[in-house]
Design brief:
single chain, 307 residues, alpha/beta, Rossmann fold, DNA polymerase, domain 1, 7-stranded mixed sheet, 7 strands, 44% helix, binds S-adenosylmethionine
Length: 307
Amino acid sequence: MSDHQPVLLKETIDLLAIKPDGIYVDLTFGRGGHSRAILDKLSFEGTLIAFDVDAEAIEEGKALEELGKRFILIRENFQNFFSVLQDRGVKEVDGILADLGVSSPQFDEGERGFSYRMDAPLDMRMDQRNPLTAAKILSSYPEEEIARILYEYGEEKDSRRIAHLIAEERTKKRIETTGELVDVIKRAKRAKSLFQKGHPAKQTFQALRIAVNGELTALEKMLEDLPKALSLHGRAAIITFHSLEDRMVKRKFRSLTTVEGSRYHPVTEEAKFSDLTRKPIIATNEELLQNHRAHSAKLRAIERNKP
Ligand SMILES: C[S@@+](CC[C@H](N)C(=O)[O-])C[C@H]1O[C@@H](n2cnc3c(N)ncnc32)[C@H](O)[C@@H]1O
């Protein structure tokens, strides 16, 4: 099993400005890289509540319970984090972190089906309880819907061609493995796009992963509840890994940190949140050399400065 090297670790922890007795939430526990660093800063009065949907992440997380600090790990989609906190009597928290996407162990374990570099069943579920797999999408969704997924979630220019070939191939044989899908993508793509930067299957795999896990819906719901959960001077930090996610976070944070006025309705009040990262923070060259996952990472953060 591979380890997960936390991305932008120091930057994230610095931005969260952790109060030793505060209540913190890690929405994406993974292998606990960020959680461990938060726990290091917390006293025995502080609390960390972490979420993940992956059974393996939850299993490995048990090791952190042994540190003796207040640490609660919950197997739940972060789109429900606010109601879960409320059910547990937690009304507001001092900091929230989300490090989106898949972890290195998920990506590197061939059988999870996230990687186009390893032949494996087309699964791509982060939550093993989810009945939908990538293979099911390819075998049962209409061609137009597959094309839409590839275009919207993968920004794949050859989406229609790929969806068309998938629809044709599946009448002969169900597409069951990552290797079979890569082969279809390579045959479907226009010759010129085969020579562009990056693996030809990268965007299709990203798109299917987002669809299988409902990633953008989960992010949208989480962003909706985020401001309600932050206490005065509470902070939120989010790390994204592709432009669709980053755009959503950027827009949400902008709407929270600015008050739009007009000629007839001048601004009379200030925004309740302030932006801690006018430009997103990206990895240093040093981190990039050590951690391939850091390449597309962007970190944005806000703070509540009014009740
Ligand atoms: C990039 S990893 C986090 C790595 C972690 N920060 C670390 O340092 O070890 C993302 C994790 O979030 C989980 N995840 C992704 N989307 C989720 C969601 N909507 N709800 C709960 N967990 C989610 C994945 O299963 C994965 O384990």
